[in-house]
Structures are given as C-alpha cells and as structure tokens.
Design goal:
The chain has four domains: 3-86 and 187-240, no CATH class; 91-185 and 256-344, Metalloproteases ("zincins"), catalytic domain (Zincin-like, 2-Layer Sandwich), CATH 3.30.2010.10; 405-524, no CATH class; 537-636, no CATH class. It is an all-alpha fold and 646 residues long. The protein has helices spanning 3-43, 49-55, 60-84, 89-95, 108-124, 157-162, 165-180, 183-211, 220-264, 267-279, 317-324, 333-345, 350-353, 361-373, 380-385, 392-404, 407-413, 416-427, 432-445, 450-460, 469-480, 485-500, 507-524, 541-554, 562-570, 587-597, 605-616, 624-636; strands spanning 99-100, 131-134, 141-144, 152-156.
C-alpha cells in the first residue's frame, strides 16, 4: 500500500472507530435506561408484579440523566485507560509482562530476535524499537506505540524458539507494517475505548461484592439487582467491543501480511510462521489475562472463542496462508522442507556471525554498489515510493551495512551509557581547539562513565564513515530510550552545548539534532504541544522557500547553479517560490519551517518530499550530507525514509 494513502486510511479508520464507539454507547444508554426504569419501577412500588409493570412510565428526564451518566462513565473509563498507556508501546509491553531484551546476552534466540528487529528497522528507516520478551509458550508477537518514535516489538518465547530465522523475519516484517502504516495508534485507542465500553460491567461486579456486606440494609435488594443488571450490561459491552475489534482489525492483517512479503520477498517465511502456529501444541494462545485487551494488536488470535469468526480479530490461519501463497494445497509439507534447509545453514552462531570482522566479498560488493553507484540512477518518484515501503533490497543493504560497521561502535550504540558517547562522537569538531573544549565540557558535565566511554571510542575509531552515521543514530535512539528523565535532559543539554560551542552549527549537526530529538522528545516530553490543524502546501510558502533554499545552497550540484537547483525543487510545488539568499537563512528560520511542515496533510507530504528530492538529486548524485538532510526532513513529518537506493 502507498504509505501516504495508508496514513489517510488510518485517519478514516479512526473516524470509523469513533462511529462504532458512539453506536455502542447509544446501545448501552438504551439498555441501561430499560434496566433502571424496570428496576426502580418495581423498587418504588408496593403493588403486585403485574400492577407494578403496568405502572412503569417512560420519562425523558430520567432517560437523559441516565444517558449523561452512562456517557460520562464510559468516557472517563476510556480516557483513564488511554492515559495509563500514555507511555506508548513500553506500557503495553509491561501490561503483557514483557521483559526488555538487551544486547550481549547469552541466549542465542534472544540475540537473533534483536538482530532481526535491528535489520528491519534500519531497512525501513525508523529508530530501532526496543524488543520485549513474553514468557509464553504460544507463538505470537505485537507492535505497540503511538508512532515509530515510541514503538516496541513484543515476541513470545514460543516465537523466538520455534520459528527459524526466515519465519521470524516474516513475523517481524508483519509487525513493522503496523508500525509504518499507522495501525498502532488505532490499536492503543481501541484498548481505551473497549475499557470504557466494559466499565459498567466492572462497576456492576463491585456493586455485587459491596452488597455482600450490606445484606440487612433496606436498599440491598435494589443494589443487588442493579449490580446484576450492570454485569449483564457489561457482557453486552464486551459483545460490542469484540465486534468493534473485529471490524477494525481483520482487513489490516491481510495488508500487513502482504507488506511482510513485499518487505522480505520471501512469502515462505511468513507462511511458514503461520503454519508453525497451526502445528504448534500451544498455537498462538497466551495465558496473560491482558491478552484479550490487545488481541487486535497481536500477530494471531491469543485465545479461542466460542463465537468463532464473529469475534475473530484475525482471518483464519488457512485463509491467511492461501492469500500469501495462492497455490497452496493445504498441506504443511513446506515446514519439513524449511526445517531441512534451516538445519543446514544454522550451524553458525547468528549472534556472532552477524558482526564478524571478516565480511564476505559478496556483502562488500553489495554495499559498495548501493553506496557509490546507485545514486546515479535515483529519480524523485522512486525515492518517494520507498517511504514506508521498504523491500528486500533495503534488508540486504541493512545486513551489509551492519556488517561493515566496527563492532566497537555497534556494541556502544546498543548500550545506554555508551550510546550517549556515540552520539557525542558524531558531533565532535575536527578542529583541535574546538574539540578540546568540547571534551573538557563533557568531562565536567556528562553523567558518570559517559566521558570515559567516549575516550575509549576516540582511541579505537579514527573516523566514522559517512554512511554509518545514521545507522548508529537509529540504533542509539533505542538505547537512549532507556535513560531516566534526568539523564535524558542532561544528555540533551550537553548535545546542544557541544554544537553551539564553536558559535555556529553545520547542516550535519542540524540533521542529527533533528532526527535524535524528534524521536526522543516523543518518548520523554509528553507535555509538548501538538498542532492538530492541518494545512495544504500552498499555505506554507515561506517555509518552503527557506527549506528548498537551504537544500540548494547546502552542496554544490555539478554543472548547475544554486538558482537552477532551487527551480528544480520549486517546480514540484503548486505555488510560486523565491530563492532566499544564504546570508538571510539561519537555523532558527529552518527550525521554524520544520515546525510548520508538521501541520501538512498526509496527502500533501509527497509533494514536499519530491521537491526536496529534486534538489538533492539535481546532478544525479547524492552526497552523504544530502541523504542525512533528506532523511531528517522526512523524519520531521513522520515519513519513515529507508536508505536511498533503487
């Protein structure tokens, strides 16, 4: 699916969700009114049952009062649950009793899972999401969060130990589709909405428990009756909630399966994972009671239901496999073939082989071709089509790139203290005096151990290759999410101090600052203001002029003047723009422009990215700084940009 269209679809799905929620609340209001009128008709009458029934009256005042009360209770219940999940994907993982997996452990299955997730993140152009392990025997997984910035991946013990690497890659690719296409935000909202719909049943349960201590009370009979009625309403809410989950989720699973096939170009990987679930003794079942709340966000149904397909948030396994492999004959012989193939290739420890110092000639050739040769044939449409839609070339690139990075840098980026040192290393000035002042500042201001980690890195790495910078940042962001609030704010203060120490900020520093803090602020700064107003590109003329001008001035385009480069970019937008002289542009104006672009409507974003891509590819070559600038711009407007290949 086109990424920008999927964002618009996600927006429509949110509207659909609200519509279904309103219908469910109206139904609860009607049922609760019937209950209240019926119960209090009897409670307030001393007549016979038949006479009391005949005396029951409908009153608009009562109806409206009950309606307001039910609506308020449901709304408060939903908002409370959504608020409790405001920490993003990590809160959902904790709700599922997930344990954060850290790199460098002794468990080969855990390390393999980290490697697969890391590859997929780099291939898709997103920060590497933390991985949480659920100690469950069933084969299942989930992606949770409000955006790629605060996303996490959850995997069960059954998944990482039962699936081979290709199958696990298919499952992870499926979950990345949910990350890239905006499904996660809907999933978290759905958890909150379902809690609100079922809150009346929870209240009824507590009323029944409380009535046990007030049996002699005159009103205890009415309270018991009300409690029983609310429990019944709770079951009605559960019914509606499950129908809403099924209506919102089912089709998205087909799309995520298809995206996983596009991502890996290996339909047998995800099909094999689904077959493993069908053959597994524990299937995809989870014991955690909270699994019912997030069933719509899981890779497969976490429990069986007596209502079968009516409540199913996922299509049947056989239907999913047949959609992936149209010629599938219904047999599971593929699993035996995959097992034989895997047993012949899995003798090497994947956890250590991935970062081996001796890279293969094939891997080196692939990396060289992508980094130095492919830029000559890049065109803007091809670049834009890659946003949110990585494929097997990006996975191969990620694998080759990870293998080419010094192990000391990779290991450092994967650990919170050392990750800060890696980011500082990337922005250290090359001038001796400036670097000395920067190091002196960190020696006195950085958290314990960070300066020491930095000196170790400086001693072991003479230079960080340009193509390695963004990869290290994407890995480091995952580690930096584990910092405390105080540690993060100190890290941010030190970063800003380092880049302003020489009284100027270059475009590399700006790009790294934009990427790092755009993603980390989403995790640590929950109070930052969000601008809900959406605008067309024509309403952001001044911002467009500043951005395209800085791109035109940023790097010399061989054979073209700055004005010609600017015009190439401006021609992609349906508005008249003027080139801004370089002496009139500063980073304050550039930052203001980027804030404005966050208000762009989803279907307006491709035009902006095409204009930017036209500027950086004007001479059919892409310098590393241009790639970093472009990906920083894309990240700012929440468009995951894979490595620039074709």
């Amino acid at each position: 699916m086109n990424f920008f269209e999927s964002q618009e679809t996600a927006k429509r799905n949110t509207g659909k969700l609200i519509f279904l929620f309103v219908l469910a609340v109206l139904s609860l209001i009607l049922i609760t009114n019937v209950l209240v009128i019926f119960l209090f008709g009897f409670a307030g009458s001393e007549m016979t049952s038949m006479a009391a029934t005949n005396s029951i009256e409908f009153k608009w005042g009562t109806f409206l009062t009950v309606g307001v009360a039910v609506s308020a209770i449901v709304l408060i219940g939903s908002l409370y649950k959504i608020s409790s999940l405001s920490g993003g994907g990590a809160r959902v993982a904790e709700m599922m009793n997930g344990r954060l997996i850290v790199s460098g452990g002794q468990d080969i299955h855990e390390q393999r899972a980290l490697n697969v997730v890391e590859e997929m993140a780099i291939a898709s152009g997103t920060p590497v999401p933390p991985v949480y392990l659920m100690e469950e025997a069933g084969i299942n997984a989930f992606a949770a969060g409000y955006s790629p910035s605060d996303a996490v991946i959850g995997l069960t013990r059954g998944a990482i130990e039962t699936l081979n690497r290709n199958q696990l890659q298919g499952v992870v690719a499926h979950e990345f589709s949910h990350i890239l296409h905006g499904d996660m935000r809907i999933n978290i909202r759905l958890i909150g909405i379902l809690h609100g719909i079922m809150i009346l049943g929870i209240i009824g349960y507590h009323l029944l428990r409380g009535s046990a201590y007030r049996r002699r009370s005159k009103d205890s009979g009415g309270i018991v009756a009300l409690g029983l009625g609310l429990v019944v309403i709770g079951y009605v809410g559960t019914f509606f909630g499950n129908l809403i989950k099924a209506a919102v989720s089912r089709q998205r699973e087909f799309l995520a399966d298809a995206s996983a096939v596009q991502f890996t170009r290996n339909p047998e990987g995800i099909a094999g994972a689904l077959m493993q679930i069908g053959n597994h003794t524990e299937k995809s079942f989870l014991n955690n009671p909270a699994s019912s709340e997030i069933s719509h966000a899981l890779f497969e149904e976490p429990l069986s239901s007596s209502f079968g397909g009516l409540y199913a948030t996922h299509p049947p396994l056989e239907t999913r496999i047949a959609a992936i492999m149209p010629r599938w004959d219904g047999s599971y012989e593929l699993l035996k073939t995959q097992q034989k193939q895997y047993s012949t290739t899995a003798s090497t420890d994947e956890a250590t082989a991935k970062n081996a110092s001796g890279d293969s000639d094939e891997r080196q050739a692939l990396l060289h071709t992508i980094v130095t040769g492919a830029a000559g044939v890049l065109v803007t449409d091809s670049i834009i089509n890659q946003v949110g839609n990585p494929d097997e070339r990006h996975v191969a690139y990620a694998d080759a790139l990870l293998a080419s990075i010094p192990k000391s840098l990779l290991d450092a980026a994967r650990e919170p203290s050392a990750a800060r040192a890696v980011v500082y290393l990337l922005i250290l000035n090359s001038a001796t005096d400036d670097r000395a002042r920067q190091l002196d500042h960190l020696k006195n201001s950085a958290d314990v151990g960070v300066y020491e980690e930095l000196t170790i890195l400086i001693g072991g790495v003479t230079n960080v290759e340009a193509e390695h910078r963004l990869v290290l940042v994407e890995i480091a962001i995952s580690s930096l999410r584990q910092l405390s609030q105080n540690q993060y704010h100190l890290f941010k203060e030190n970063f800003l101090a380092l880049i302003t120490m020489d009284k100027k900020m270059n475009l590399l520093e700006w790009a790294l600052q934009n990427i790092v803090f755009h993603h980390l602020d989403a995790v640590f700064d929950k109070n930052r203001s969000s601008r809900s107003e959406k605008k067309d590109i024509s309403q952001l003329q001044e911002a467009c002029e500043v951005l395209l001008s800085i791109l035109a001035h940023s790097n010399e385009q061989k054979g073209l003047s700055v004005a010609e480069v600017f015009e190439l970019g401006a021609s992609k937008l349906s508005t008249l723009l003027k080139l801004v002289p370089i002496n009139e542009i500063d980073f304050e104006k550039l930052n203001a422009a980027m804030i404005d672009f966050q208000m762009l409507k989803p279907l307006q974003k491709p035009a902006l990215l095409k204009a930017c891509a036209s500027c950086i590819t004007a001479d059919q070559k892409i310098a590393p700084i241009e790639a970093e600038l472009f990906r920083a711009i894309a990240a700012n407007i929440d468009c995951p940009m894979p490595p620039l290949i074709i």
